[in-house]
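Pasting two entries for a bug report.
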Amino acid sequence: MLTTLLSQELRTNWRRILAIVVVMSVVGLSAAAASLADTPIVETELMGIALASFLSIPVFIFLLLLIEYWRSLYGKSGYFTFMIPVRGRAIFAAKLLFMILTTVVGTILAIAGCFLTAWMNSQKTSSVNGELLDLVLDALTVLGPWLWVVIPAGIIAVIALIVGLVASLSISSQSRWNHLGLGAPVIGSVLFFFSVTITAGFMSWVVPLRLHYDHEALLQRWQHRGWLYHEIMGDLEYATARSNFGLIDFGPILAVVILAGLLGWWAVRSIEDHTSVR
């Protein structure tokens, strides 16, 4: 049944998802190609547009599916959705899994687009942005031994945030808050992020699970770079002086995962016992 529900999600949303990918990729590639021209005044702005276009792909896909989630469960389409002879937890799992998978695919496309943009600019010897790819490769080199920890932890944190946000929509759409209308899911989302902030800060203090990487080695590598290094170096020096730059804290990630699990359990109960279709 889960496969059937996932197939339905794909049939419903694939055209709009494809439109997002195509439009933002065309914008990104066009801006990246235009930045290769001999226009130093707007070269950086064009590259920024290209990177922003690619990075917006997973964001737009997630927002699209988030709106579709609420509409298909609590809008007029909800009457059809709850006629399907499956439990609410199956519907919740299918929609959530589809949202995660498509967002991950969108993120992969976004990363590929950003690397392509950086590589295109690195081929231009007169480009002020040509060093961006070198800066990224330097960071990957320094973090190399820890990437197997950092990348999975980041993926888990993002998935937990998605689960928690989606769950907060279902929890805040119970019949008891029906009088708030569309304000209920908005308030629920705000309360979720507030809870994440509080629990992440608490777990960072309670759970001493941290990873220190050699940020001095990274800065030494970057000192040999040119224009872009000097643009960002001020912010990095400020971060070094004011915070634990060179420190990756896993306590907040653990907090988000626990909070997402609790909210997911609550969301299933809300869908199965307290759903109110608008």
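Entry 2 (this is the one that rendered wrong in the viewer):
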Amino acid sequence: MTTILQNPSKTSMSSSRLNWLQIAIISAGMCFLMSGETKAQPVPIIFSNDSGMSSSQVFIQFLGGQPVNGYFVDAFGSNQTLQANTSYSLDQLRNPSTGQSQIFVTDYSGRIYMNYGPYGLQNLGADGGGYTPAAANAGDPNYNTRYQYWEATIVPETTGGSTIYADLSYIDFTAISFDMAARYSSNSTVNTIVQNGNQVSANTQVLVNATVASSQNSTLAVLPQGASTTLPNQEFTRVISPQFSANGTYHDFTDYINALGSNSTGVTLAGVFVGTGPQPTGNATTQGQTYNFTGNFTGNATSGQIVLQAQPNSGNSTSGPTNPGVGSNATITITNVNLNSQDGIYGNNVVYTVSDSSGNYTTTGITNDVYGRVVGDLLAGLSFGYVGSTQH
């Protein structure tokens, strides 16, 4: 499927590949109010269904984010307000004046789920409105539904334009292939000014084949278990990713961690943490500040750890001495067992212990502060194999 994000000068995109949805995003321009202020036009998003499924069998829904501010044009030419936690078929979204499945969004940040089937996703609005499907949970009401999400943030600006961020995501599972492009409505060409403005995926069969081939046990990787991966078929829903799969579905990092420990491999993690929220924060851990930690891996995958020690130039606030950072008297300890868990290198949400001037504490995962930034840097390096590599 293709999605297209547009400006008053951008429009849709096409593709002829099976199992494919396209999204076109056309950036908004501006309209002028009587007061002389400017108001952002809604951003048109056009959906092109090249999946081989009827458009009455393809649904979208805004889940897990803020309320959506936008509308679609119904079959009678009337504007209908979009609602979060509500399913809309591509047939329902077909604009009679253009013949395209189209929505207009002024303000939204979150996931946009798309699914195949006779109806949209179930259980919408649960968990206080924050429900999103649990892809690996057989008890989830959408477990047997084939769905995929993409992510969008559309923010109206006071100058009259819109800031748009959008990305495709297969990080949790692979089920439906998307294309996405920012296009000019004047000539339907890709807006090359937009960074990564044309995101192209292989068709779904290629993606499924690649993800299944990377698993050690395809029976566990493909959901529901026993479903064929030859598409299209009615049983297949998704290939689950390592952080949501059972042990043994994918390789772990035992050999890598053993090698790092046996060589006492060292790391240096240094940079500037911009802070969490408006600055200054009045909180040492969320304050913008420098960081510089070093450490060495020890032991093996079952008994070792890495202790990251702050260096003298670490923890210096970017807002001056009246709003201090954490300083240089700090360590972060991560066990190799936790690094090798599903939440470790694979999940990028490892448990770690912090010791600083405020005391000692152990997290339940990465926190949104300077220590989380340091741990995130380490996990990124491990994920890409940079740590211990002799290739640069």
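Dev reply: Rendering is fixed now. As a check, the viewer should reflect this: Helices lie at 204-213, 218-221, 254-262, 336-339, 342-346, 370-383.
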